[in-house]
Amino acid sequence: MAHEVTVMTRQGCSSCVQAERDVERICAELGVPWRAEDVDSDPEWQAEYGDRVPVILVDGAEHGYWKVEEDRLRAALA
Predict the structure, then answer these.
(1) Vertex 1, ends 20 and 68: CA angle to 5°?
(2) Which helix (H) or strand (E) holds 36?
(3) How far apart are the first and last CA of the chain?
(4) Which residues pair with 34 in a beta bridge?
(5) Residue 7, beta-bridge partner list
(6) What is the pLDDT of residues 39-70, one digit of tens each?
(7) Is 53 helix (H, G, I), strand (E, B) or coil?
(8) Which of 9, 16, 21, 44 has the smallest CB count inside 10 Å?
């Protein structure tokens, strides 16, 4: 099964920058596509994720927030 990771971010969020770096590295190693989305670009995203950024989604489902748990993310993508 092909997976996809999305990092819900916000401008000016240092934790988001770190999460993007971690996801980029892990996904590159595993050959999994990923993208970042700004929660403030959509009112629904802002309401859903705005107080917990960065939020990591795997295949559109919430996987975690505030930081990347590398072992857990790798297991979800295996």
Answers:
(1) 25
(2) strand 34-38
(3) 9
(4) 5
(5) 36, 56
(6) 999 999 999 999 999 999 999 999 999 999 99
(7) coil
(8) 44
